[in-house]
Specification:
Layout lengths: L1 H4 L4 H16 L2 E6 L5 H11 L3 E4 L3 H10 L5 H4 L6 E6 L3 H9 L3 E3 L11 E3 L2 E2 L7 H8 L3 E4 L2 E4 L3 E4 L7 H9 L5 E3 L2 E7 L2 E3 L1 H4 L3 H21 L8 H19 L7 H19 L1
Antiparallel strand pairs: 1-3, 1-11, 2-3, 4-10, 5-9, 6-8, 7-8, 11-12
Helix pairs in contact: 2-4
Length: 282
């Protein structure tokens, strides 16, 4: 490690060593985004993570030095570092960590300059405001506001801000007044380094319900295919035998092969055919 850090002041060398040491103690090293998290909420998040993960704030350049010292590809981490990054260490796998961090997210009011994470929609209907200047505030921000029945109402449903658009001061004011909280604030995982691989959030964001349903569907389809193809397993052998027995019984009835278990079916079929023939001749 000294090869990479000897040009640094001693306190920086110590910090790099600490980053590397923690990476050796835990199975996963990740980067999280702290942007926009109030101090009080940050304290609560630290408390919630106690015993599950270690959060460490440090300079981004020292993170780069540490990954270089560990022999990891620096491009793999620098892509994700920004001015609000912090390190997180845990023995959870990346999917478990991502799920835990998602649980730290809370909805906050938007501030001017924030970017809409998704389409922000204002629904049609009455508001809690009485007639007054607020109508002009809504209209100037682009909302179809009017006065009806002694209340300020939104006359039609409107996509107020599209996903990816920057929120203006007027828009932020309107969202605050309507108590619409569109901004997710919490520890947002930027990247996780685990078992020699970098995992991005797009890989980790799994809908567990959908995943479970897909597994169930795949199992059902595999079972049906096994029965149809007569591929015997512990799960398919009984349905295969039952299917074969049913097909053999149908063939016996169709070919009028008299056996004790199908003779009544053959007679019943013949009786129906006789009745049908009689009906045609009368």
């Amino acid at each position: 490690m000294a090869l990479y850090t000897t040009h640094l002041p001693q306190w920086k060398q110590d910090e790099v060593e600490q980053i590397v040491s923690l990476a050796g103690e835990y199975a996963l090293t990740g980067l999280v985004d702290l942007h926009g998290i109030p101090a009080k909420q940050m304290q609560e998040m630290r408390r919630d993570l106690q015993g599950k993960a270690v959060l460490r704030m440090t300079r981004n350049t020292l993170v780069e030095h540490a990954f270089t010292a560990m022999g990891e590809p620096i491009d793999g981490i620098t892509t994700y570092i920004d001015g609000h990054s912090a390190l997180i260490y845990t023995n959870d796998n990346p999917f478990q960590l991502y799920r835990k961090l998602q649980q730290t997210m809370t909805k906050m009011v938007a501030r001017p300059g924030d970017v809409a994470p998704e389409d922000i929609v204002v629904e049609k209907g009455p508001t809690s405001f009485k007639p007054g200047p607020i109508v002009g505030v809504f209209q100037q921000a682009g909302l179809p506001a009017a006065i009806e029945g002694g209340k300020v109402v939104i006359r039609e449903r409107k996509v107020f801000i599209k996903a990816g658009e920057e929120i203006t001061a007027k828009q932020a004011e309107v969202l605050s007044k309507l108590d619409i909280r569109p901004i997710d604030v919490g520890l947002s995982l930027q990247v996780a380094f685990y078992d020699g691989t970098f995992f991005e959030p797009s890989t980790l964001a799994i809908d567990e319900t959908e995943y479970y349903n897909n597994v169930v569907l795949a199992a059902q389809q595999a079972f049906n295919l096994g029965v149809f193809a007569a591929y015997p397993t512990a799960q398919t052998i009984e349905p295969i035998i039952a299917k074969a027995a049913g097909e053999a019984r149908n063939l016996g009835v169709e070919a009028a092969i008299y056996t004790s278990d199908i003779v009544e079916l053959i007679i019943g079929r013949a009786s129906l055919q006789a009745k049908a023939l009689k009906g045609m001749t009368e």
